TrEMBL record:
Family: Belongs to the UbiX/PAD1 family.
Spans through the membrane: none
Gene3D superfamilies documented for this protein: Flavin prenyltransferase-like (3.40.50.1950)
Residues noted as binding FMN in the record, renumbered to the chain: 3-5, 29, 94-97, 129
Lineage: Bacteria, Pseudomonadati, Spirochaetota, Spirochaetia, Leptospirales
Protein's organism: Leptospira sarikeiensis
Summary of the function given for this chain in its UniProt record: Flavin prenyltransferase that catalyzes the synthesis of the prenylated FMN cofactor (prenyl-FMN) for 4-hydroxy-3-polyprenylbenzoic acid decarboxylase UbiD. The prenyltransferase is metal-independent and links a dimethylallyl moiety from dimethylallyl monophosphate (DMAP) to the flavin N5 and C6 atoms of FMN.
Protein name (Swiss-Prot/TrEMBL): Flavin prenyltransferase UbiX
Molecular functions (GO terms): flavin prenyltransferase activity
Signal peptide location: none
Reaction(s) this enzyme catalyzes, per UniProt: dimethylallyl phosphate + FMNH2 = prenylated FMNH2 + phosphate
Domain of life: Bacteria
Positions with a binding annotation for dimethylallyl phosphate: 159, 175
Length: 192
């Protein structure tokens, strides 16, 4: 999680990940924790707190392995391509993290792991949120697209009449899972 608005997208994606067999390495930037605090009007202080918040709020049926890694720990396992993971998602993704990944200036574990994901030709899915975009944002995202990343903006559809923030989060989570190669319908498919 990077520090863009849209904590609900991360929260609902995390909730679904908890129920799906597999392992997740979870990193949250200090800015993302702050935004989460504001957007859920809660007092989370860390990645651990965010996972606890999600579990308590939505009570996933089962909780699969979540490995929490520290944002500052550029020596963590996921800082090296010698460890294997299927893909990486930055949700939500700030323009600052977009810029860092684009330039390869990787000063924290999110940026480093994204850099590794790209160099190892694994799936990197970025869910940016900003409006409007300036030329720098657009150029950075285009360069990342050309380098193999998938830019999946946080822009849920409204044609299925979402009733809640959870619905909007689940729309995005479903799309992210599909990009990762997993067909998980958290939200109904469109039927004309
Ligand atoms: C309440 C709040 C909302 C923010 N929303 C956005 C946003 O939607 N998009 C964005 O690019 N940055 C946003 N920011 C700014 C980022 O948090 C800031 O650039 C930060 O340095 C990003 O660091 P990180 O990418 O390492 O998390 C927001 C900051 C705050 C406090």
């Amino acid at each position: 999680m990077a520090g863009a608005s849209g904590s609900i997208y991360a929260a609902r994606f995390i909730r679904a990940l908890m129920e799906i067999p597999g392992e997740t390495w979870f990193v949250s930037s200090p800015a993302s924790v702050r935004v989460f605090r504001e957007e859920f009007e809660t007092d989370v202080q860390s990645g651990e707190d965010i996972l606890k918040f999600v579990t308590e709020k939505w009570g996933p049926k089962q909780v699969h392995k979540f490995h929490i890694r520290k944002f500052e720990d550029i020596g963590a396992d996921i800082a090296s391509g010698s460890n294997i993971w299927d893909g990486m998602v930055v949700v939500p993704c700030s323009m600052k993290t977009v810029a860092a990944i684009r330039t390869g200036i990787t000063e924290n574990l999110i940026e480093r792991a994204a850099d590794v994901t790209l160099k190892e030709r694994r799936k990197l899915i970025l869910v940016p949120r900003e409006t409007p975009y300036n030329r720098i944002h657009l150029e950075n995202m285009l360069a990342l697209h050309d380098a193999g990343a998938i830019i999946a903006p946080a822009s849920p559809g409204f044609y299925q009449m979402p009733k809640s923030l959870e619905d909007l989060g689940d729309f995005m989570a479903t799309r992210i899972f599909r990009l990762l190669g997993r067909e998980i319908d958290l939200y109904p498919r469109w039927t004309p």
